[in-house]
Amino acid sequence: MKYLVTGAAGFIGFHVSLRLLTAGHQVVGLDNLNDYYDVNLKTARLDLIKNHPEFTFVKGDLADHEGIAELFQTQRFQRVIHLAAQAGVRYSLENPLAYADANLIGHLNILEGCRHNQAEHMLYASSSSVYGLNRKMPFSTDDSVDHPVSLYAATKKANELMSHTYSHLYGIPTTGLRFFTVYGPWGRPDMALFKFTRAMIAGEKIDVYNHDQMRRDFTYIDDIAEAILRLQDVIPQADNSWTVESGSPATSSAPYRVYNIGNSQPVTLMSYIEALENALGQTAQKNMLPMQPGDVMETSADTSALYKVIDFKPQTLVEEGVARFVAWYKNFYRV
Q1: Are residues 54 and 68 in the same domain?
Q2: Which of 213, 255, 268, 321 is 20 to 30 Å from the Cα of 233, by its Cα?
Q3: Do 140 and 253 fall into the same domain?
Q4: What is the pTM of this model?
Q5: Would residue 36 show up in a list of annotated catalytic residues for this protein?
């Protein structure tokens, strides 16, 4: 099959593209290679796949309506895996307009491309951050997500709403993927594991927010990629028996679905740090800080709906995943 993978030079997009190519598919990878974090890391990811005979890289911006429309018209994708976005909760407090361009206009442009070119399935990245002020654990796709606490989360909620509208109006099958704190080799430098590792190797203190009173459902990248590869074959179908009064908000009368993709085994931030200390063989110097605006205390994924449709749920233990990241980091940066 022929796929469009947006954010192909990004953390998740690179892994998904590699998996699709290995499975024998054709992949067109779109990325704008922006400098939100080290562009050299993005190009290094691309270097591993750019010479594959079934891979084509296109440098382009999601907010470029004409460029995205032309890409769809010329390439005629069968399926779309839309992973590109302006990431980062804290950065959304500093530069909110970047999120409007990439996450709102960009998402709309991808939906329009699918609409006008009859893509048979669009999967897109949402986020566990949409749960916002929710306190019931674990987070379920049956829960309300009407109270986000960051603009980033609000744009992801908006992506789900926009996708539902297009599924309803135009019959485009869409599947939203609520990722829970993804980590692993080739990860993002703005994420905690990368920052902690870099600081500890340099002999610097690490910033620990909310005085370590936080828990996260850390999800290993290989589990994320496996779930995506399985879900792209699960194309949502319209369900005329569904009603707002009795149906789950994660489903619809339209061909629309939303799933949590998490490890379902939340750990404390300190346990995460301890796994890193064990992998590096050194103790972290910690700078305890208060809760940051936009953060949430805890995340935990109910993945029962995911397991039901793909017979798979993420399960890599933090100790194993962190050790694999450290091995990659030392090799890549020649530590």
Answers
A1: yes
A2: 321
A3: yes
A4: 0.95
A5: no
**Which of 36, 124, 152, 183 is flagged as catalytic?**
152
CATH of the domain at 328: 3.90.25.10
Same domain, 188 and 245: no
* Structural domain of 36: 2-180+219-261
Same domain, 113 and 102: yes
147 and 277: one domain?
Answer: no
Query: Could you tell me the maximum CA-CA distance found in the chain, to the nearest angstrom?
Result: 60
Is the alpha carbon torsion for 33, 17, 222, 157 positive or negative?
A: positive
Same domain, 206 and 235: no
Overall domain count for the chain: 2
State the CB neighbour count (10 A cutoff) for residue 199.
16
Any idea what the CATH number is for the domain that residue 162 is in? 3.40.50.720
C-alpha angle 109-86-151 in degrees, rounded to nearest 5: 100
User: pLDDT truncated to tens, each residue of the chain (335 aa)?
Assistant: 999 999 999 999 999 999 999 999 999 999 999 999 999 999 999 999 999 999 999 999 999 999 999 999 999 999 999 999 998 877 888 889 989 999 999 999 999 999 999 999 999 999 999 999 998 999 999 999 999 999 999 999 999 999 999 999 999 999 999 999 999 999 999 999 999 999 999 999 998 887 677 889 999 999 999 999 999 999 999 999 999 999 999 999 999 999 999 999 999 999 999 999 999 999 999 988 887 777 777 899 999 999 999 999 898 999 999 999 999 999 999 99
Pairing of strands 219-220, 182-183: parallel
The closest alpha carbon to 119, from 55, 76, 163, belongs to 76
* In a domain? residue 309: no
Question: Which regions of the chain does DSSP assign to beta strands (E)?
Answer: 2-6, 26-31, 55-59, 79-82, 121-127, 174-179, 182-183, 206-209, 215-216, 219-220, 256-261, 267-268, 286-289
Residue 306 lies inside a defined structural domain of this protein: no
Are residues 325 and 121 in contact, defined by beta-carbon separation less than 8 angstroms?
no
Same domain, residue pair 328 and 244: no
